[in-house]
Amino acid sequence: MKRKNFFLAFMLLPMAAMATEVKSPNGNVVLNFTIDDGRPTYTLSYKGKDVVRPSHLGLELAKDKHASMGMNERDLMDGFTLVKEETSTFDETWQPIWGETRDIRNHYVEYVAVLQQQWRSAPAKAASGMQLQPRQHRREILIRFRVYDDGIGFRYEFPQQQDLNYFLIKDERTEFAMAGDHTAWWLPGDYDTQEQETQETKLSEIRSRMQEAVNWGNSSVAVFSMTGVQTSLQMKSQDGLYINIHEAACADYATMHLELVDAKTTELTTKLMGGSNAYTPAPSTVPGGSPAGSYPLPQPFTFVSHLTPDATGLKGAMQTPCETPWRTIIVSDDARDMLSSNLILNLNEPCKLEDTSWIHPTKYCGVWWEMIVGKSSWNYTDEFPSIKLDNIDWTKVKPNGRHAANNEKVKRYIDFAAKNGLDQVLVEGWNVGWEDWANMWKRDVFDFQTPYPDFDIQMLNDYAHSKGVKLLMHHETSSSTQNYERHMEKAFQLMNKYGYDAVKTGYVGDIIPRGDHHYSQSMNNHYLYVVKEAAKHHIMVNAHEATRPTGLCRTYPNLVGNESARGTEYEAFGGSRPDHTCILPFTRLQGGPMDYTPGIFVTRLNTWSNNTSWARITIAGSLALYLTMYSPLQMAADLPENYEQFDDAFQFIRDVACDWDESIYLEAEPADYITVARKAKGTDNWFIGGKCDENGHKTNIKLDFLDKGKKYDCTIYADAKDAHYETNPQAYTITKRVVKQGDVLKLTEAPGGGFAVSLMAK
Amino acid sequence: MKRKNFFLAFMLLPMAAMATEVKSPNGNVVLNFTIDDGRPTYTLSYKGKDVVRPSHLGLELAKDKHASMGMNERDLMDGFTLVKEETSTFDETWQPIWGETRDIRNHYVEYVAVLQQQWRSAPAKAASGMQLQPRQHRREILIRFRVYDDGIGFRYEFPQQQDLNYFLIKDERTEFAMAGDHTAWWLPGDYDTQEQETQETKLSEIRSRMQEAVNWGNSSVAVFSMTGVQTSLQMKSQDGLYINIHEAACADYATMHLELVDAKTTELTTKLMGGSNAYTPAPSTVPGGSPAGSYPLPQPFTFVSHLTPDATGLKGAMQTPCETPWRTIIVSDDARDMLSSNLILNLNEPCKLEDTSWIHPTKYCGVWWEMIVGKSSWNYTDEFPSIKLDNIDWTKVKPNGRHAANNEKVKRYIDFAAKNGLDQVLVEGWNVGWEDWANMWKRDVFDFQTPYPDFDIQMLNDYAHSKGVKLLMHHETSSSTQNYERHMEKAFQLMNKYGYDAVKTGYVGDIIPRGDHHYSQSMNNHYLYVVKEAAKHHIMVNAHEATRPTGLCRTYPNLVGNESARGTEYEAFGGSRPDHTCILPFTRLQGGPMDYTPGIFVTRLNTWSNNTSWARITIAGSLALYLTMYSPLQMAADLPENYEQFDDAFQFIRDVACDWDESIYLEAEPADYITVARKAKGTDNWFIGGKCDENGHKTNIKLDFLDKGKKYDCTIYADAKDAHYETNPQAYTITKRVVKQGDVLKLTEAPGGGFAVSLMAK
């Protein structure tokens, strides 16, 4: 089903400055757009409540020495007239290659505003020295809104035209004026890391919380403002609206952060005579930028977009025709709608891969957790103070005896995977270079080709294949992207040769080329370049430390996962709060699945290692994550021997699907609890998971979503009565019964706990 | 013949601060080395005359947030003791794959000083926040000198050691204290261009000349100081010494410039309280650098090394074991020794390619000059304000009618090459993307794969091969190195498929990734990466706009040429001075051959185009360049129809070799005249060329280098009596006679002219 009707299109030159109202299909979401003193301005409401108060749209452009070559310098901020409007509806249902539901409806009202700037340039001298003659300029940009029942997406579009061919972005100045002092779940804005603990504060408290919110010991920290936060940003208003700001389809463009204008900003601005922390990036980082204070400061509680810069401080180099990513605002008065929203996927382009037969959901285990915990090592030797790949004969070096990715251990994992129906085995540390891989500014850090001498790549792949298992490749780039791109083609060829069909990539540490950032335009281009090149080799990609996703997996469904947030590894680095996994689905997961690597059963790491950290979760809670943290790629992260201690509980991981025909969010509240029921793809089986924070949670699940007349073998994995994430995490019960439509499950989740239910159709 | 004897090796800990004297094999060049108040210091003399007065050696290191990971921050400037010395001799004769002579003798006395720093660090907090405990540090570096009869080379070496594993270079501070106010032939120091006209001034006049020396209209200009100059820097002292400073074997290291400390520097330093233009780079460009004025300012007339920075202002990221390039000082009281010196080649590593059978000297013509002049175009269409490669169906676009690289024209050039014994035909503008290729910050600017619709790559290569000619590939990168590296492998595969064996690469415009510079460590790594990858495909490389060469062609002889200076194209951009080609062999050519693209016969471009520029050379002078500008790759740059007008003169280009068994510089004076006789490789034929400046030159050439008893058919291409580069450039005479050993040729070179002689053994 696909319909697209233009029912309103008219043209005035210029149009009267009256607001245009655009309603979502069910009328709940209402957008208003107008030109306010030459500046494009919008508002948003939900069921009559303010979501976004009048907010300006625009971009500041950077001066460039190539202005005389056609580069644009005049800002795309003001002086606009509205010369054309178009409104249309769209309604289509499409099927993702993998996902939470078999069908996704994409139903919106679209509104396009065509804006024109005209001016006469003064005679000027370009930075190159060339004399520029005065002349008349005219250029047009479009702002395209799509209004859904659960929010809006909008973007800037730049048609190809004589007066707008190339331009450099100083910064995008999209405003989101919040209607009140909402509660927000936020991460410090940062150009290089998104692995912090989420903060929960009022908007007015962001500034005062910032200092403690930042993990200053993380060498990747690149915080840019005391009120800068990341997207996806989840908020809740005092009048009960859930509001989420993020972006969709961020490809060859810098990742957006949000900088809050608060009362202090206004105070500082007044004090600094036109300067403001929202609008005054250090002059040294923005070459030739327009003077601070060129545009008036928005009201407090307004977020202003702040893009990730490149090494020179610029935010983007654009060539028309082009467009920005979609800026998304999801809104509802029901928190569950935040989780079931497909707005971001819908705003991405349809699948561009012709053949997707090789893409498949994957459960895997891996030689990983024991290195994260510190019991064994990625590197093979401790013999050298530093290594250069070309200079070492690996057959002659002295092993350190701690190298995990050895033949014996990998075979053990293969056996475990085969026995338990896991599809793949990740092996980290298989390839030479781990001796000094991080934070040394080493360009030529890995070759992605050469196994350590104790990793027999041919034998192990053969062994795995003989048991119906595949190995899962690992490419840690150490953020030396130039080096990775130089070796990537051969690395993928090697994967094809040995039968790998998925790779976990990593971007730990500082970007090389130096000065670039993880979330810049060029890095976002790189991540997608890898995905596209991998697709040519029928390789699925799971990129860690890459930019937080924005739904590009719809277009390139071989992007089966990302980390891009604080994952399970932090349970070994001091731990994460118990509510962490009740926040991530509202924030990080909006843009795409996370390779959270759940499944820790032995939460006290000192029981089998020297690591004194402990995971803040119960075993039943760990099982719940396979439902509440949707991903087509799910790891069973703990050690085989740890699972073997709790084989009855591990049965759930054996059983659970990771691709779905249907998903129903039964309950949800950010940072408190999430309960979801999902129907496994192509089956009549259902799985239910519930996860809660440190306060525990009680729930009654009415099984009215089951097929009428059908019976189900129901297995309930629940926290025992005395279970507690800190004191008694391994106390669980397993109950079996037969259920039918309409039955009710009464379940109690322990503090930091949860439950998991399998319902196998009889 | 290869001998290496250690005849002096002793050890003291620490040694007394007395100077060590090292003499060259014939004793003319004398090096002195000592530790002066903890700083390594050297002097150099030639036949008792001062060449370098006491000059310090050292490097300033940059602070890094990864200090706690083992990064070094303490400067390698002072606090040194001499703990070991080694002296040895070396004498070897080797054969280059191609070159000016069949045999090259590498004969030097080597002196190695082992220097130690010891200190106890104070407790400190690393940038990462980690607490650093005080401890005892000890590290050693080596300074290795090689003392030749015609100069010295020296470099810093950094052995692998616990206290020196990784470090970042803030700048190298190698001093070259000149003994007087020499005359210098210099180019403005610049991170991105070396295509300026050479300036001839006293050292004391560099500052006042700088403003006019810079072509400010060139958008690539990145001048860093009012006294910064490039190497190779040629000087002449008032007492008649010729001194040249350059570098050898600059691979994964930033290109060195020289910043002169002059009287004004001292004055400014005094005024600015410790600041100086030699030692105070803008703090914003050197992260965490040590405070200005940490080290005392050298005396006036001292050059201090200044490396090319990366986008963050850093000059290098190093991992031990490693070394700097060699810093070279060639010296003689005979200008001809400057030209015949093999010091820079000798300081490079021997050939690393196992099979070199596919590398060959090449004469070529090309579809090039008419685009440079502006008569035709590289691009195929003018239809679009900008293009994106993926969006265009090239078979449907409207041709502009000016596209030069079309089947008909290329066939015409192939016919011309075949008829005249030229090996190859360069075709620029064969591939899509030229419509908006430069200065637009376009990353995805070319794919190096797709020909324009009027260039039938299969047919044209077949046609060429059927006539015994090859096409010469062209890869203009537009300095988007990331894009080039992404496409390079496939581009080389395409070359292999169609039978190309040489590529001219280009690096016009600003480097992408943005902020990087043409001569930075990463770019130098890139250029060599291309050469190495090309070698795997048996492809010869001729890189334009790349870093000025430093003799790496010894190690990778498929690097057959570079531009890296102001080439013939500037004759169409306003012209170059007549003495330009009498300077280049002293400067630019020290590091390796230049693809100067000589051979302009029709110097008044407006006789066949709208270009009003004119080449400042006579036809006889143009012929001379094939001898005086040594290169294994020589172009006949003018149009076939222009050569056909002067076919008797063109005979010399047909005849002249471009690989030699012997070369004898008969006369030379920088910027005045150069006369050289060369014996063609594997033959008994000799060729002689003489080129002079705007003043003309008279010479008597005694043919005592000819074989005794042998007779030679001698053809002399000389300026006619009334020839003049401006008023009568096409007036030449061709004289034939038979000569023998001991005969004398009396020749007169017109202003801006020259002569060429072929001596074919009978």
Protein architecture, described:
Two copies of one chain form a homodimer. Chain A is an alpha+beta fold. Chain A has 13 helices and 40 strands. In chain A, the strands form seven sheets. In chain A, strands 1, 8, 9, 12, 13, 16, 17, 19, 20, 24 and 25 form an eleven-stranded antiparallel beta sheet that branches. In chain A, helix 8 (481-498) runs parallel beside helix 9 (521-536) and helix 11 runs parallel beside helix 13. Chain A is globular, with a radius of gyration of 26 Å. At the A-B interface, helix 8 and helix 9 of A face helix 8 and helix 9 of B.
Give a short overview.
By secondary structure, chain A is an alpha+beta fold. In chain A, 16% of the residues lie in helices and 33% in strands.
Shape of chain A: globular
Number of helices of chain A: 13
Which spans of chain A have pLDDT < 50 for at least 5 consecutive residues?
3-16, 273-293
Biggest chain pair interface: A-B, 48 and 48 residues
Which properties best describe this structure?
homodimer; 762 residues; alpha+beta; eleven-stranded antiparallel β-sheet; eight-stranded antiparallel β-sheet; 40 strands; 16% helix; disordered N terminus
